[in-house]
Specification:
The chain is built from 16 helices and 18 strands. With 498 residues, it is α/β, with parallel strands linked by helices. It is elongated, with a radius of gyration of 25 Å.
Length: 498
């Protein structure tokens, strides 16, 4: 199932096409009806408690006023805080008149009112271009202190629908438990601050699905995007069928990073797994003796998939070995220290961009910033566009890690991942992801699908652990490989049954 994500510009075009074919106010009326129905679903019917509707001056406020009139007409206790604008659209003006003619009560402030069972946020939608200030900011800050569900209309007020960043360096945004978004889903609801502020996202296309003429160049990651590569293993196969994965790392004091990547590769099905160590190491993983340790200086990387970076360090030996694998033609995943070495060396970066084999990069925001020559704050301010830029610049599939990890390829296509939880915010989980994607590459998966599947499985494994009572607080990277194995086998079984 495809889950397209549309930019604000694309949504505007869809909206204009719909308005050209429909009577004035139709979309606002439909949005009000859809949001009212969704609100009642959340509440289990018309509630006895109070519903607080925050309506801004624009069309998002008009949607909210429609909701207020609808719910009041059904007998709900509705209070409306309305921020009037200088020149509302005719549709918004009609919605205001309808709400004032209903049983809804217009109030001046939230303070001093009895507790509510739902807040409907219709202050500002996708058109907001500046940080919330004045009374709007005060209202949003007060909603943050309310202990009731919050339903945002289209996008939580104060959140950029394209980027998932809160608007303004000191901005605020509504923290919704649910968002009903109209005409099409938006990327900003699923990455960065959007992960904490949008809550559960419900899409309603307002019966305008036939007007989606623009191709979406972003989508939500899901198994459907890589299901064609999920297949049961043939009985007539052997370890050579499933590839050799070599983890280039293991600098002194950082052996664990290479071991975690190697364990992930093993549990995700690699035929053989090596740690090609920069410095002399333990020579054995007592928990997983199947992993073979070799001296990186004399290791034959040709014919193997290389995961470069976990615990690699920045020694001259590390630079030499990284240079060697970049010049190879086999599949290559570049992570952690290897990314930083490329960022520090224009020569390595140029050779990385020019290599012929499948290449996947897995930076966190600071590593991406170093590669792009900007700050991490700039990367986080527009995760999709910076992931695209890095993919194009280095001609590789890029996984920009973080809340709502962004997977980008050089042609500009991106996917946002929806699995995972804060349990992954601990050392070593990135090494596990690197080993996981590396082993999919080693089994012959194309770089794009390997990245999509690896990121999805990595997050789903963390979700499985949390569901079983492990974490999110205190979840460790070493617990992920077995959960990844369970998720991968479950996906293969489901694909085989389909």
């Amino acid at each position: 199932m495809d889950n397209p994500l549309y930019s604000v510009a694309q949504i505007r075009a869809i909206e204009q096409a719909a308005q050209a074919q429909l009577p004035p106010g139709t979309l606002m009326h439909r949005a009000g009806e859809a949001a009212s129905t969704y609100a009642l679903d959340l509440l289990g019917g018309v509630p006895a408690g109070r519903i607080l509707v925050l309506a801004g001056p624009g069309n998002n406020g008009g949607d909210a006023l429609e909701v207020a009139a609808n719910l009041a007409g059904l007998g709900a206790n509705v209070d409306v805080v309305h921020l009037a604008g200088a020149a509302p659209s005719p549709e918004t003006q009609r919605a205001l008149e309808r709400a004032r003619a209903s049983r809804a009560r217009f109030i001046d402030d939230i303070g001093g009112e009895p507790g509510c069972c739902l807040v409907v946020d219709g202050l500002f939608g996708i058109g907001l271009a500046r940080p919330l200030a004045g009374r709007a900011r005060e209202l949003v800050e007060r909603t943050l202190a309310l202990a009731c569900p919050v339903l945002a209309l289209d996008v939580p007020s104060g959140l950029d629908a394209d980027t998932g960043a809160i608007i303004g360096p000191d901005g605020v945004a509504v923290r919704a438990t649910h968002t009903i978004t109209f005409l099409g889903d938006k990327p900003g609801l699923h990455t960065g601050d959007g992960c904490d502020h949008a809550g559960r996202v419900h899409v309603n296309r307002l019966d305008a699905a036939g007007l989606h003429t623009a191709d979406a160049h972003a989508r939500l990651n899901a198994p459907a995007l890589f299901a064609g590569l999920l297949a049961p293993r043939r009985r007539n196969s052997h370890k050579g069928t499933y590839g050799d994965v070599a983890v280039l790392g293991g600098a002194r004091g950082m052996t664990g990073a290479g071991v975690l990547a190697a364990r992930a590769a093993l549990y995700a099905g690699a035929g053989r797994v090596f740690v090609a160590a920069v410095d002399p190491g333990p020579g054995l993983d007592p928990m997983q003796p199947e992993i073979m340790f070799r001296d990186g200086a004399g290791f034959a990387f040709d014919g193997r998939t290389v995961v470069a970076g976990p615990g690699l360090g920045d020694s001259a030996a590390a630079v030499h070995l990284l240079s060697k694998v970049i010049d190879g033609t086999g599949p290559l995943l570049v992570d952690a220290d290897a990314l930083n070495l490329c960022a520090a060396s224009p020569d390595l970066a140029a050779r990385l961009a020019a290599r012929g084999g499948a290449t996947v990069l897995t930076p966190h925001p600071l590593e991406a910033a170093r590669l792009l020559g900007v700050t991490a704050a700039i990367v986080q301010a527009d995760r999709l566009e910076n992931a695209r830029e890095l993919a194009q610049r280095l001609d590789a599939v890029v996984v920009l890690k973080g809340a709502g990890s962004v997977i980008a390829r050089p042609d500009g296509e991106v996917a946002i991942n929806t699995t995972g939880n804060p349990g992954l915010a601990t050392g070593g989980t990135g090494d596990v992801l690197a080993g996981l994607i590396g082993t999919l590459l080693g089994q012959g998966w194309p770089a794009w699908e390997a990245a999509l599947a690896g990121v999805w499985l990595h997050g789903a494994a963390a979700d499985r652990l949390v569901a079983s009572g492990v974490g999110p607080i205190g979840l460790t990277a070493g617990e992920l490989p077995r959960a990844i194995r369970a998720e991968l086998n479950a996906l293969v079984l489901d694909a085989d049954r389909a």
